[in-house]
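Input chain follows. Return structure tokens only.
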Amino acid sequence: MSLYAYPEPNSLLHKNLKLEQHFEGGYFVQTEILSGEVPSPYAEGASRPMGTQIYYLLDPNSPWGRMHMNRSATFHVHHCGRSEYTLIYPPTGDSPARVEYHVMGANSELGEVKQLFAPSNVWKASRIPVADLAHAKEGGGDRERIGCLISEVVVPGWVMEDHAFLTKEKLLELFAGDEEKAKPFLEIVKPLAERSGP
């Protein structure tokens, strides 16, 4: 039994969209880069493409997107499936780091969202919900129809120089050295090869 509407199986999404492995985890293909460049207000005025767009897929073979930051703002638009997003806003002034959780999906009655905005310089990670992966593993669902396909639009456009992974040291710094507060996020900070679970 399917957990949610998933019109095309993952194998067809990979084939038809020509997806490639993403270095953060998951799969992607760049579908648009706007011609022309603009000075980025998020990168000290450095020149950047006006905007970029990708498809991004998580599936049971690559269910994580490692915690990272983009200096540009990112708009996420849901197409099918379901994924959990964790956003960590760095501390500012007297305010401590703030954590937000969102589920991108089609069921608004459950609080799932079809759009998600990640501002500049906010840490972000994504994953297929553990319960969804367990459902497929236990034979309750088709692995070909478990995952999440979205589009990401980055403004100004994405460049490698504006990307950073969150390290354990930086994670502790975000929470003022409090290991208990940092502990829930240690798994999504690890490189993909070092993770212990799905």
